[in-house]
Amino acid sequence: MTSKALLFIIIMCLFAQNKAFSQNLDSISSRKGKNKPKAEVTANEPLKDSVRIAVEARPRIAIRKSAILPGLGQVYNKRWWKVPLVYGGFVGVGLVFEFNQRQYKIFLKEAQFRELNPGKTQNPLYAPYSREGIISVKDSYRRNRDLSILAGVGFYAIQLIDAYVDAKFFRFDVSDSLSLKIEPLIQNETISNASASGHAVGLRLNVSL
């Protein structure tokens, strides 16, 4: 074997050994990365306790319950006295809708009858009214009926907002320990080395923690 061939074999062996060593280092570093504690990975993330997470989730839960069934969010917030108000509002809107819908149909039939029978009246009670007057009253009841539908949608949105706000301020202090007191105040001021006193009204907020 010549010296050149021997040198070539030695170089190839060193290259193979170096490559194997590099692969071992990569495998060791990857294993260390997998075994890294989770606490170190999430060390910079803010931690929240279970109580805070539950309080922050209350508004979403309350508005979801009220969306599914009106008044259920108020029950979830322990505002039981608001449930009759919620359903009373819906009943009131429903009665207004029913009244205007019924009157609209009555005057619609009268207007249609007069359209097909000129000079005649279907209901003697409406004989004093002209055809234009009957149509005007019909349109008025139809407009009020449509407004009652919008009122129902608006009332539905209001009870959603009410449930959300109650849940948002669930832990807000509204007890007797929180008070606002207004009292007179004498304030002394110095102007050009001369003291002067004036009257003012001061506000004092008392909070007991």
Question: Mind explaining what this structure looks like?
Answer:
The protein is 64% helix and 13% strand. It has 209 residues and is α+β, with helices and mostly antiparallel strands. It has two domains: 51-168; 178-207, no CATH class. The chain has a two-stranded antiparallel sheet with strand order 1-2. β1 (178-191) and β2 (194-207) form a beta hairpin. The chain is elongated, with a radius of gyration of 40 Å.
Keywords:
209 residues; 64% helix; alpha+beta; 2 strands; two-stranded antiparallel sheet
| Cα separation of the termini | 94 Å
Helix fraction by DSSP (H/I, runs of at least 4): 55-70%
The biggest beta sheet is recorded as: 2 strands, antiparallel
The secondary-structure element order is HHHHHHEE
Number of strands: 2
Give the C-alpha Rg: 40 Å
Count of all domains? 2
What is the mean predicted local confidence, pLDDT?
75
User: What shape does the CA trace take?
Assistant: elongated
Side by side, the strands of the main sheet go 1-2
In brief, what are we looking at here?
The chain is an alpha+beta fold and 209 residues long. It has helices spanning 3-34, 38-41, 50-68, 72-76, 82-116, 131-168; strands at residues 178-191, 194-207.
Fold blueprint:
Blueprint: H1 3-34, H2 38-41, H3 50-68, H4 72-76, H5 82-116, H6 131-168, E1 178-191, E2 194-207
Antiparallel strand pairs: 1-2
